[in-house]
Amino acid sequence: MPENTTQSYAKHARLDPPYHFFALPVLAITFLLSIWNLIRSFNFLHVWMAVVALALVVVAFKARIYALKAQDRVIRLEERLRLAALLPEPLRGRIPQLTASQLIALRFACDAEVPGLVEKTLAGNLPRAEIKKAIVTWRPDYFRV
Prior knowledge:
- The chain is mainly α.
- The protein has six helices and no strands.
- The chain has helices at 17-40, 44-86, 89-92, 100-106, 114-124, 128-134.
- α1 (17-40) packs antiparallel against α2 and α4 (100-106) packs parallel to α6.
- The longest helix has 43 residues, at 44-86.
């Protein structure tokens, strides 16, 4: 996502064109073609090619998931530090009650909105989507994987 694009709840998802529009389709088509070849001519080579193609699809998805999990850990730490600086004392002690998903959603809230959103989140155990919808002034995140 270009850095000059305004983010909002409706427009914050990010697609990586080389990954989403090239690598994944190529791997999916390769897997489907290997299955097609296997059906047309069942032999060890075609079985092995289907297994290898499936392994490549799994590797592509796992690599993406690993990167997202590492990013989520960093966001969780960053938001805990941010909340410790922004929240009034009574709410500071409740930071550990926020789930990783809630912390990840709160990163989009501007500093002025954070205390109120944290209070609403803790009171209603709001899920990620509800927290994002409640944000009035969006704080963009251009560094996502």
